[in-house]
Amino acid sequence: MLQPRRPPVIVAPSLLAADFSRLAEEAKAVEAAGADWLHLDVMDGHFVPNISFGPLVLRALRRHVRLPFDVHLMIAPADPFLDDFAAAGADHITVHVEAGPHLHRSLQRIRGLGKAAGVALNPATPVESVAYVLDAIDLVNVMTVNPGFGGQKFLAGQLPKIAALRRMIDAAGRRIALEVDGGIDPASARAAVEAGADTLVAGTAIYAAADYAGAIAALRPAAG
Ligand code: DX5
Ligand code: ZN
Questions:
Q1: Which protein residue's CA is at the shortest distance from atom 9 of ligand 1?
Q2: Which residue from 88, 95, 160, 223 puts its CA 20 to 30 A from 194's CA?
């Protein structure tokens, strides 16, 4: 019997695991290797215990890469910087539920800047935190590690959360990307997609590989 067709998954390599001395080259390399989006992890040393890069780096990269920039803000507050990231070339801007007191206002601002609005859920953050703002959301990022570092182990306890969000999104009846972020390798990618994820962020699994195209292809569910 024919199975209902799901759209192919989106693969978004996280530049956090790239060689930081060659960022543009590393971004172009995943573009050439078949990536769909480029995931950019912005960390402030305050919301998360690590510091990465900000809008100036995005702006510099924007001149070299055509891929949509999927910008994951692990910063608090995020609101004062939304305009800067939009101007620097972000296509999607994702804020954490805990980044400020007025999530809906942050999402409205992102949409107002003409960008796709995302919300990231920490492992302990419940799905209910987005239940009443779904109409303002274009992307949900389910963190399957504690945010702040690449190379951590996938938290399988998040799979029921992915499934619950899949049900909420399907009930909402409009396109909202369901992204999973942290510890994604071919095995966890398969579990996440089976639970309902349609977008895979992967840093280490791609950038630690010798063959980026092979690593990206290995995350996509087998056809058929
Ligand atoms: C973690 C970041 C992730 C991270 C994923 O704070 O949000 O995007 O780069 O890296 P891996 O795939 O190595 O877990
Ligand atoms: Zn991320």
A1: 150
A2: 95
